[in-house]
Amino acid sequence: MGDKIAVENVNHPGKTTNVDAEKYNATKAAFLKGLPKAPPGLTQAEVREAIRPHMPEHLFPGGDKIGWWQKCVQLDLEAKGILVRENAKPLRWHLA
Length: 96
What we know:
Layout: E1 4-8, E2 16-20, H1 21-34, H2 44-51, H3 66-79, E3 83-86, E4 92-95
Antiparallel strand pairs: 1-2, 3-4
């Protein structure tokens, strides 16, 4: 079993969950490379396409579980103030 990292959830303040640190860090790096720094940001589907090229194949073979990790890291980065959720329909995100 690999190293773990505690992640937060913007929807459940004060609660943390431990997840695989290597996959978390790879997904976080993909967010930092793939997301814009200003509004209007990207929709959830656009985020997936923006981060996909930056996701290491050896951790996510064939894109396996990218959606789960995308949501996990998105909620954590929002809780930490690194990612901003725009008040728009559909929802959009950009880096703070």
